[in-house]
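TICKET: design request
STATUS: open
ATTACHED STRUCTURE:
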């Protein structure tokens, strides 16, 4: 069962007024504020250059303090922590050459302990 409503002239005028206000607001934004997202993107693109200049000007220690205080993203603080990162990678990079002489068991209950321990397992 469908109930049809009668739309009065006042309701129709109100809906048309709201629609025109939406269009006016959109046009006003395009005229006055549409430049802002582009300008904001251009400003954000300069952050990397500014931080690199600051690092060269003030040195790693002062820039590191600033970066930690301001909680800068890692893409801006990468030059400071490069040595730490390389040391971490060297520490966690174990040689896998002990897998070269790996022999699999011929039988289902074959020998165990076929892989000799790596250098980082010895105490």
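STATUS: resolved
RESOLUTION: sequence designed for all positions
ATTACHED SEQUENCE:
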């Amino acid at each position: 069962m469908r109930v049809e409503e009668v739309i009065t002239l006042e309701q129709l005028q109100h809906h048309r007024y709201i629609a025109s206000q939406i269009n006016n607001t959109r046009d006003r934004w395009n005229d006055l504020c549409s430049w802002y997202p582009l300008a904001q993107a251009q400003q954000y693109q300069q952050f990397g250059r500014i931080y690199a200049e600051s690092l060269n000007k003030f040195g790693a220690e002062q820039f590191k303090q600033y970066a930690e205080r301001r909680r800068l993203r890692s893409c801006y603080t990468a030059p400071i922590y490069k040595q730490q990162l390389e040391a971490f990678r060297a520490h966690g990079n174990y040689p896998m050459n002990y897998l070269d002489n790996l022999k699999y068991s011929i039988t289902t209950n074959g020998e165990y302990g076929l892989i000799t321990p790596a250098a980082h397992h010895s105490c």
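CLOSING REMARK: The chain has a mean pLDDT of 82. The CA atoms of residues 10 and 16 lie 10 Å apart.
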